[in-house]
Q: What sequence folds into this?
């Protein structure tokens, strides 16, 4: 069975290579250490999964093609004239702003936290790197509310780098109610130079909606691109077709935030009559998966072959091994 699973994975990755020009000669090395996991690509830093920053694990820094850093440094590090707004928006993260009435999105006050528990697997190798971890969702007083399993897989492409970030939340302590709020869930804070306002960035949705009109709209994917360290670069988040309420709504802002959020319906629709229209209840013992692909690419959106990247993610081949 193990060999069959390995062959299925190998076939799928081979198809990704053929479809998106992934370079199989690359080598990923993942190293767990007390503060997280180093992710190295051909001996050079790609990203770190950090477990002791703020109130949640994050991915930072994230180094894209040509060695360009693809997310904001603040508040982990203060450099240049970066804006110091929204200190809870830390590079790349997954959490949500209202779970059983607890705010896991913001920091400070009476907010909750998501705490790393352990790594279940850390895997290095050619073509891709992978780790799986467990995280507890805690109230301010430390009482456990829920738990999740995170699976992160990284690839290198000719024109970019790719990350699959899949999180399965389990209602381990009782029912979970994801309330209707704009504050969630898989989020990225782009470099200041790439912002729509204050930078030269642009936002593009899979359905052609652009820039300021993108907030709260539904789309299969969203791209945020602009100039970073003198080069045109971009980041695309793709929503998996198996996700809840696909295609998701997007909390994407002109100041540099964008996040996939399937729950914030009344906020996005400005519906003051039905403030709970986006609520979702996960019964005790139940689980819900949230799967996303993040593509850090060279060039602007029109240069990145995003329809092809979407096709490779949304419609992978069916494979069986006997």
A:
């Amino acid at each position: 069975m193990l060999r069959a699973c390995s062959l299925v994975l190998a076939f799928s990755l081979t198809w990704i290579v053929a479809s998106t020009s992934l370079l199989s000669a690359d080598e990923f090395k993942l190293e767990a250490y007390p503060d997280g996991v180093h992710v190295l690509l051909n001996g050079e830093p790609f990203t770190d999964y950090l477990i002791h920053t703020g109130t949640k694990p994050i991915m930072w820094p994230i180094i894209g093609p040509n060695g360009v850093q693809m997310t904001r440094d603040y508040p982990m590090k203060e450099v240049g004239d970066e804006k110091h707004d929204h200190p809870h928006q830390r590079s790349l993260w997954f959490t949500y702003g209202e779970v059983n009435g607890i705010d896991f999105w913001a920091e400070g006050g009476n907010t909750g936290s998501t705490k790393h528990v352990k790594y279940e697997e850390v895997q290095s190798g050619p073509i891709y790197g992978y780790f799986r971890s467990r995280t507890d969702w805690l109230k301010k007083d430390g009482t456990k509310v829920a738990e999740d399993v995170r699976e992160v897989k990284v690839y290198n492409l000719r024109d970019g780098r790719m990350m699959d970030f899949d999180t399965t939340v389990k209602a381990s302590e009782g029912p979970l109610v994801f309330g209707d709020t704009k504050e969630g869930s898989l989020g990225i804070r782009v470099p200041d130079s790439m912002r729509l306002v204050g930078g030269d960035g642009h936002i593009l949705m899979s359905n052609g909606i652009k820039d300021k009109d993108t907030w709260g709209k539904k789309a299969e994917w969203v791209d945020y691109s602009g100039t970073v360290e003198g080069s045109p670069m971009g980041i695309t988040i793709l929503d998996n077709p198996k996700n809840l309420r696909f295609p998701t709504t997007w909390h994407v802002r002109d100041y540099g935030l964008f996040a996939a959020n399937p729950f914030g319906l009344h906020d996005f629709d400005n519906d003051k009559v039905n403030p709970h229209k986006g609520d979702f209840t996960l019964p005790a013992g139940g689980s819900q998966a949230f799967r996303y692909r993040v593509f850090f690419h060279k060039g602007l959106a029109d240069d990145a072959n995003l329809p092809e990247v979407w096709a490779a993610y949304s419609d992978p081949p069916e494979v069986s091994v006997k």
Remarks:
- The first strand starts at residue 27 and ends at 33.
- Residues 2-20 form the longest helix (19 residues).
- The radius of gyration is 19 Å.
- The CA atoms of residues 268 and 312 lie 29 Å apart.
